[in-house]
TrEMBL record:
Residues 282-378 form the Acyl-CoA dehydrogenase/oxidase C-terminal domain. This is Acyl-CoA dehydrogenase. PROSITE patterns: ACYL_COA_DH_1 (PS00072). It comes from the Bacteria. It comes from Mycobacterium adipatum. SUPFAM superfamilies: Acyl-CoA dehydrogenase C-terminal domain-like, Acyl-CoA dehydrogenase NM domain-like. Residues 129-225 form the Acyl-CoA oxidase/dehydrogenase middle domain. Gene3D superfamilies: Acyl-CoA dehydrogenase/oxidase, N-terminal domain (1.10.540.10), Butyryl-CoA Dehydrogenase, subunit A, domain 2 (2.40.110.10), Butyryl-CoA Dehydrogenase, subunit A, domain 3 (1.20.140.10).
Length: 381
């Protein structure tokens, strides 16, 4: 296989999978009438769609068959993800559980945890939130103040998480907490992760409503929440290593370059019906060229993950470059829309994209912090 073929991600059975997903999405949209959305992986929650997608065999692709999944690789999931985001499909309900929690359970979870949680995730019916960020610990997760204190038969969890996407609808959250006192010389030591049901006594979920009136973020407070040993994910004290690996899946996926895909595709299709000058054609070419380069970088990370390689540095690079491209693409598309006779649909999508644009470089770790991760990964001090 040539290097170009590898970057196309259509080798083997991937091309057939891509066609099947594309057909499913088109048929499901025609039948159920959902509308493509900007940032669909974060804001478009549709439990029915997630269940239908799972029933069609497109959720839990990387989960082994003995846990209800399909036993395929990260590239298979990448292809499905790319097609779903390119169509702006409403995938938020199952997103975090399928993207981050399932790989973490397979890497670090106990056999009991896998059998308890993975079948529901693969069925698109068990939803998870991620409890990492706090008011004083956003991109710098080493400042996490949430604590889990040992008790006779488990742990007591106290603290507050913020920007918890889907927390008001999720069944459980994976929560990062400090289980040992802070050592200023080793800030990344002493963390553990816990599986916490979000209807447990002591859990309070407060909505964070964005400027556009939408509620997908939350503040989640844990007040002496009892967590059993069976819900410790991995080993005590290994939380930082686990989170770092988990963030590789979060930062490198196509959602870091395709959040604005429906706007870009829509503008280009509209321009195809217009007479455009050479300058406009060059702007379109630049936009597509940058998108293709970023996609190829993202695919290369997916292949590295498929091969079991450490891709943390490359994942951070994808997130930095990809989210900056997403932000810049919004205003590039706004300029290109001046050449389009639009009925208002694209301008409505543009308005939503502008509202979401400031978030692109913040979530998943701010780009400024990620540049430090990249520098360290390259050996720069």
């Amino acid at each position: 296989m040539s290097e170009f073929d590898a970057l196309c991600a259509n080798d083997g059975d991937l091309a057939d999978l891509r066609v099947r997903v594309r057909r499913f999405v088109a048929a499901d949209r025609d039948r159920f009438g959902w509308k493509p959305e900007i940032d669909s992986w974060l804001t478009s929650w549709d439990a029915g769609f997630s269940e239908r997608l799972a029933d069609a065999g497109f959720v839990g692709l990387t989960i082994p068959t003995e846990y209800g999944g399909h036993g395929l690789g990260f590239l298979h999931r990448y292809v499905v993800t790319e097609e779903l985001l390119g169509a702006g499909a409403p995938v938020a309900a199952h997103w975090f559980a399928d993207r981050q929690v399932a790989p973490s359970l397979l890497s670090y979870g106990s056999e009991e945890q896998r059998r308890r949680l993975l079948p529901g995730i693969a069925a698109g019916r068990l939803y998870s939130a991620i409890g990492m960020s706090e008011h004083g610990a956003g991109s710098d997760l080493a400042a996490t103040a949430t604590r889990a204190t040992r008790t006779g038969d488990g742990w007591l969890l106290n603290g507050t998480k913020v920007w918890t996407s889907g927390g008001h609808r999720a069944h459980f959250a994976i929560v990062l907490a400090r289980t040992s006192p802070l050592d200023p010389e080793h800030r990344h030591a002493g963390f553990s992760q816990f599986i916490v049901t979000l209807d447990a006594p002591g859990v309070t979920i407060s909505p964070i409503v964005t400027l556009d009136g939408h509620h997908h973020f939350n503040e989640v407070t844990f007040d002496d929440v009892a967590v059993g040993d069976a819900d410790l994910l991995g080993e005590v004290g290994d939380g930082w290593h686990q989170v770092t690996a988990e963030l590789g899946f979060e930062r490198s996926g196509p959602e870091r370059i395709l959040s604005t895909a429906i706007l870009i595709f829509g503008v280009i299709r509209a321009l195809g019906t217009q007479h455009v000058d050479d300058r406009t054609a060059a702007e379109v070419g630049d936009l597509i060229g940058r998108a293709m380069a970023l996609r190829q970088l993202s695919v290369s990370v997916a292949r590295a993950l498929s091969d079991g390689q450490d891709a943390a540095t490359r994942a951070a690079l994808v997130k930095d470059l990809g989210t900056r491209f997403e932000q810049q693409s919004v205003e590039l598309c706004a300029d290109l829309l001046d050449y389009v006779d639009d009925d208002g649909d694209l301008r409505a999508i543009l308005a939503t994209a502008r509202q979401h644009s400031p978030m692109f470089t913040l979530r998943g770790g701010t780009n400024e912090v990620l540049r430090g991760v990249i520098a360290r990964g390259l050996g720069v001090r």
